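Q: Can I see a sequence and its folded structure?
A: Here is a first one.
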Amino acid sequence: MRSSFFKGLLVFALSICSGAGSFAQAPAAKGNLFIIGGGDRSASLISTLIATAKLGAKDYVVVLPMSSAEPEASFKSIATQLAKATDKKIGNLNFDAAKVQDKQWLDSVKGARLIFITGGDQNRFMKVVLNTPLYAAIHKAYENGATVAGTSAGAAVMSKYMITGKQLQDTAYKETFDRLTDGNIEFEQGMGLVTSVIIDQHFLKRSRYNRLISALAAHPTFDCIGIDEGTALIIHDKQVTVAGVSQVVRLTDPKNLKVTPDHLLKMDGLQFRLYTAGDQFNLK
């Protein structure tokens, strides 16, 4: 059944040779990013995602479930929701070390109009994708006009500097940071679909202010954005629209940022903005 599906899917795939390694985001990408902060996804939010993707008659959707420890269940969850909003084909491409070299699978990614990255562990996803032709294929699809969507871990991977969730000064994982000290936040290389933005997810639900302030201190010229559950950022170029049921926090421009001899962070102020559905703003 899966074999026959992919034969049909590949009819629509673009015949573009895959490239190796990672590269920077093209400055004039035609696509959109649809970045969901995790949690429940309302039917309205899924409808907005489908409308953003502007699926044509021959277009299809690809789900990348590699973040999840249970990729089949993760795929079924989002595929069920998407199928209620569109009649387009929805493919499950659970890449591994062998499949990231598979030209047919890579062409299916390049030709997709909507790519959805599921939740789970962002580090698990990037371990499969980084420095492979799949990284390049996702970027190529985005540059050609695809909407790249992700939720939870799939939101975190959008950034060039991806928050791993680990505190470098504490061996025990916590959903929220318990200190504001220099060098406490760990980053790894993400997808770089947004290059001067750091994304955090489940933001209000898990009160991740300390983590986002730590990210801002590490990258003070960036937009550091926390997206709550059931809520999304829709990004086209530098234009952003908020959708969903909750809020988005944006931290920028720390004033007189300093580090004490005891490695504590301090600053005289920062720009704090709080957005709800329908609000729009421009990234730096």
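Q: Show me another, different protein.
A: A second, unrelated one:
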Amino acid sequence: MTPTHDYSVFGLHIRSDLPLPELLAVTTASSPQVTIRHGKVPGAPATGVGPHLTDGGLLLVIDRVGRYFVKDGSEIIVERQPGVPDANVRLFLLGSAMGALLHQRGLLPLHANAVEIGGRAFAFMGASGSGKSTAAAWFHDRGFRVVADDVCVVGFTDDGSPQVRPGVGRLRLWREVLELSGRDATEYQRSFTGDDAPDKYDVPLTSPSATDAPIALAAVYLLERSEGLEIERLTGVDAAEAVFANTYRGAYVPMAGSGHDHWSACARLVSGTPIFRAGRRWDLADLDEQYGGLLEHAERLAR
């Protein structure tokens, strides 16, 4: 019998026959909300990479990695190609495949990192390369807890207050940022193994104090380039468009049949949470000045 492992991530109890060291391990006798297992993906083989709608679920085909079948927001079947490193399989399992599952469940995943400041969560969203993980690493190295990396799931309490559900316990950093923070790249694993793989590394964040309890969301910042630190509040359509544009794997929403839930969650978020555009200089030498200004702004909100 294949051994299984129980984890908590995004507020979900997951049972997996794949070890997932990036997640918070839990001990529980309760039934899982999500199961992950190796197996043969049902249906005819897909001929192209990317997402495909199939009978009963959504199929993701990843070149030189494998196929992931995501069904009903409660099951992921992983059919890996022979010889693919475990880290490569987990990268897309905890990324794109999990994004599809979150949409199937009607949740709101943002392409964002989140840190805890003054007992509340602050999310930093933006396109790939916008500096989300750089910001999270800067805050982490100054003693702030990183709540979510790359995928930030927002849920709501019964009274409609937004919360961040803790995510994957690691940061993915470019080598330049890794070394600038004083870390030695030889001490960390590459996020993806291959001849043409990006020069990114996984930095584990899990600690004995890790918790899966949700944390109230105080504000969301959209990271962009500018001549200097500029923070302005977005409202109305501008705020809604920013959230829509930075929904993690937003293209999966219609395929997951979650369009109404997604629209409703975005509207609830922007109606009760301040959304800011945060411009900063694209210069790693100015991180203390730029992110220090963001920290001051967030601390005023937290108070």
